[in-house]
Write a structure and sequence with these properties.
The chain is mostly helical. Helix content is 66%, strand content 5%.
Length: 424
Amino acid sequence: MQRLLLLLFATAALYAQPAPPSPEHKDAPHQYSLPADKLQKAIEYSTARNWLHFIGPIYGIALLLATLRFGWSAKFRDWAEAASHRRGIQAIIFVPLLVLTIDLLSLPLGIYEQHLERIYDQSIESWPAWVWDWTKGELITLVMAALLVFILFGVIRRSARRWWFYFWLASLPIIFTVAFLEPFVIEPMFFKFEPLAARHRALVDELEKVVARGGLAITPDRMFEMKASEKLKSLNAYVTGFGASKRVVVWDTMLEKSTTPETLFVFGHEMGHYVLGHVRNSLILSSVGALLLLFAAFHALHWLLRRRGGSWGIRGVTDWAALPVMLLLVSLAGFLGEPIINAYSRWQEHQADIYGLEVIHGLVPNSKAVAAHSFQVLGEVDLEEPNPNPLIKFWSYSHPSISERVAFAAGYNPWSSGTPKYVK
């Protein structure tokens, strides 16, 4: 449930970033590779993550089926209805009972995932801090879930035939409001942020040259440093928000380990997301996808309730106990639709790579080598497997593989023909 709701509101186009090579980048690779000991570790880490990636949603679907098969959802509904006749009170009782049941039963997978991050040197967050972050995330999920479910069932009770469309309309301002407020409200609950210029004024001056090269106006007050090093060893940067809340965020781990040319390339990539409207476009496409999903769920829900509703103790579409059936349908669609979503994400990331290379061309000496070497070191830090299984890459990779990114950066040269794609 928690992951499902967070996916609804996810807006950031994440881009993991590199650690520093030698300043001159004379030996930039043309092919990504790892030494034998690190290669074995990367394969083990990737294998464990891949198993977890596929087991997680399957386990989540099994939990939803269990809430129906064993009547937990119907029992939670009975408790909520016995407590009050007011629908708002019932939602406040029913939704947390369902969410906490599913999320607590899913907690072992979350613990194992954090265990992997710790033993493979991706995270340094203590277990008490991790539990507190999980608790904060759960509280956010409970509030958002109770609000959305209350609206959903209110719409269903008023329009049995068009609820899928009216709920979609009602959810749009909520989704866009959350996306707008996320950088101000949600993200600071988990990490500390400060203006990038506060400790890196000289770097900001260099970044403004990249901004000018792209013909944009990204002011320093939209550039932020995130204190990731309190919890993580990995390197990252991303663009988030939209409108007045749009910003570029660079992790302090990357700033501490990257050279200035690399940071300019990283910023150029993130500026590409900014310029090319990837956050906005993702929000629009996800909204259209949500409409199609709700329409399909409307028909599938009626079909399922006619055949199994009685055995599950569900009285009809307006019954609170029908919520796990809806979540089951959404979970199945999300799992099966993941390759399409990730293919689109990989395309966006590749376009941002192109933009990053083009916008620093002429500002950073040997810019192709800078980018290629940065991807090489990124793979070493994040233990990226050099030759991922094609099916795994097709299904679960939100970014091109490191091998593809190294080869592309090293070989990209549109200037010889005078036809750069984005930055002329």
